[in-house]
Specification:
heterodimer; A: Rossmann fold; Rossmann fold; seven-stranded parallel beta sheet; 8 helices; B: Rossmann fold; 28% helix; globular; binds flavin-adenine dinucleotide
Chain lengths: 314, 250
Amino acid sequence: MILVQCEFDTKLKKSALELLGAAQKLGGDITAVLLGTGAGAVATEAAQYANQVLVCEDALLEPYTAKTFAKAIADLAEQAEATIVLLAGSRGGRELAPRVAVRLDAAYLEDATNIERIEGGLRIQHYAFLARVTETLEATAPIVVCSVKPNTQAIAETRAAGEIYEVELELTASGVNILGRIQEKTTRVALTEASLVVTGGRGLGSPENFALIEGLADVIGAGVGATRAAVDAGWRPYGEQVGQTGKTVQPNAYIAVGVSGAVQHLSGMGKSKNIIAINKDPEAPIFKVADYGIIGDLHTIMPALIDAAKKLRD
Amino acid sequence: MKILCLIRQVPDAEAKVKTKASKMDFDGTTMALDGMDEYGVEQALRINEGGANTIAVALGSNRFEDAIRRALAMGIERAIHIETDTIFDVVSQAKILKAVVLEENPDIVFVGGQHADTDSQALGAALAEALEWNQITWTTELTLDNNQAKATHDVDDGKESLELTLPAIITTQQGLNEPRYPTLPNIMKAKKKELKKTTPAEYGISTSKVQIVAQEIQERARLNKLIDGKDPIAAAEQLIKLLHEEAKVI
Ligand SMILES: Cc1cc2nc3c(=O)[nH]c(=O)nc-3n(C[C@H](O)[C@H](O)[C@H](O)COP(=O)(O)OP(=O)(O)OC[C@H]3O[C@@H](n4cnc5c(N)ncnc54)[C@H](O)[C@@H]3O)c2cc1C
């Protein structure tokens, strides 16, 4: 049985649809787990993709803490006799999944880009050494916990609706007191889930000039990213940072504007299917990994690009 | 306050990595103390000025000794090297390190938020669970008041500030501090500091639950179609056309 921990807001997140897709591909009985406030409201949606849906809205699940969630998921995995547990490779998922693995004394595979069954376990691929190396790993164990990199799996297909069960869990408070949360909510598509990303770097010169990045992103329906240089300067929120210490993205097209292409930045976007660079310096390292690019001043190129994209759209 | 720092030795970010027969080949690759772990070492030294009651712990091969010497030269008081050539899965690592933590009984364990060799974010969380402690991941600000820790850290969609009672695992990253460079006198002193050697077998762990089957460097061939932007409008139109008709991404 495959247990799938699903992330959701008012709907299942794309990461959850991908996990369910991966579970369907692996084959076998699928149990979707929905934890926290609002879980009940997405149960019917989840039931389209799984054989069972387990819903728990225990008050101790709010606000989220890794310790309490890990106990909930591990307890459900034990009760359901899961042999595989899948979680999202989001930042939250990657602090939760190892805890679940420890509780179950399972083998843990992290941030898989590709998953397949082998006798008694799983084989995955994932990136290592600042995403410069692709590793193939195998785990044979009674239980394998695996986090799956966002944007790498096909979305689940609907099937005959599964059963929905409300479950009770014996949880304890984690002892963590959440003082506040600053949500960097954007109306644009989430960076790690976007199939197109436009990123601005120090070359933009000022926070105001990010209007050029946002302008193009809005026309083509892309997520907005930033380099650490732009984030450190206070021009953009940290949530937009792409790279070693920011997010890892793998969109269909990654458009880097005024970005030099430092190793630490490349480790977060180097696996993008197409890389497009706009930079005035023909020697900029970003051009070495670019499929397409314009060598020129972004102040003149970007307005022209936005116009050309608009023309195409309309 | 007693502080333990988990550290590792990894290829330097700027160094070229290579493989041989589907395995990493570190011959000629410059190695360094993992930059993410280094923030933890620095934070420990800021909390306990002079380095009293700070311990560096490394679980890994013989070459990890360089990272240990670096941490000692930065000011850490003593070190434990659990020496092994086996690359353990994170659950097994957590079991070994849990035993060390219980022996040493620190208030805080620092570890890097993501390691530059395995690209893993798992060790801090796994160790926290093994100890049944709380964790603060991706910490950018930390203040301590007796056994209360207040921190700001990054989460998927923004920032969160929280408060907890120690002991805790705290994972570190860029933004928390600026790590110091070891001074020459401290490098000399580090040579005389205590470095205890032990092995995973002493903690009853000898095999990994996860096997590395292959390591490959897969560089995507890039098209490198670069357009001269002297005429911005023509260049922009050409690029949009390529993206629409050739790459088919818009
Ligand atoms: C431990 C560690 C972790 C790190 N993590 C990250 C990370 O997660 N993400 C990250 O991005 N970085 C990270 N970095 C920093 C990284 O090394 C680089 O410093 C950073 O990526 C540079 O950002 P940039 O490309 O915006 O700026 P720069 O390197 O300054 O590049 C600006 C570019 O803009 C171009 N430009 C300037 N003006 C114009 C113009 N008018 N028109 C067109 N082009 C123009 C320039 O030619 C240049 O190529 C990390 C560093 C360390 C040590």
